[in-house]
Amino acid sequence: RLIKLSLIKAIDKIQTRPLPRTDSRPRSDTPPHANLGGSESSHVIELILEKFKLNRFHPNEHSETSIHNSSGNYIICLRKGSTLPTTTIKPILTNFEGRQVIYTGIAGTSLRVRDFKQHFIGTNAGRSTLRKSLGALFGFRFIPRDSDPSNGKTKFSETDEIKLSKWMREHLVMFFLSTSGFSTLEEKLIRHFNPPLNIKGNMHPVNADFRSLLTSLRNLRS
Prior knowledge:
The protein has 222 residues and is α+β, with helices and mostly antiparallel strands. It has helices at residues 39-52, 111-120, 129-138, 158-171, 182-193, 208-218, and strands at residues 56-57, 72-78, 95-96, 99-107, 142-144, 154-156, 172-178. The chain is 32% helix and 15% strand. It is globular.
């Protein structure tokens, strides 16, 4: 799996025999978000997360050039002491490196363009799922994104987009990892962290009510 995700490279092949299984029963003390379909999968995701820890980006402190200009995955967390906008339902958050995870996403072409330019300094929530969700939680009013409003695509006013960018740079931190197997890895990260702002592909019962609320807020029209 690590080879398919381009995280390691095989340089030779050796003959090995599988280790005997000791106890296949699930541990009762295993947290729900850590269930990736077996101990092997859990071990794989932990190895991958160690690589994420090497790439931490603070949008108000670091240059955008520190973000890799390649495809990959990213994990968005709240800075220590920061919270999501208050709603009628409070989500349950998991931690990564002492910070609460709120979203994980992919960049099919460039992490630098996707994360910094479209998320943190973007001026159009219609091109960023993360911005649209956060703006909806803040209660910002949706307006048509394009000259043809009939397509249903929306964004926020220029004033609200500026407010949103400022809040994100001050309250969020990002971890990222370059990889060509970003789609497969995203599924694992969603199952592992259960980020509340990930709606698509997130079937975890925990935060289901919050995701339903967020979906309703995102579907509001001006």
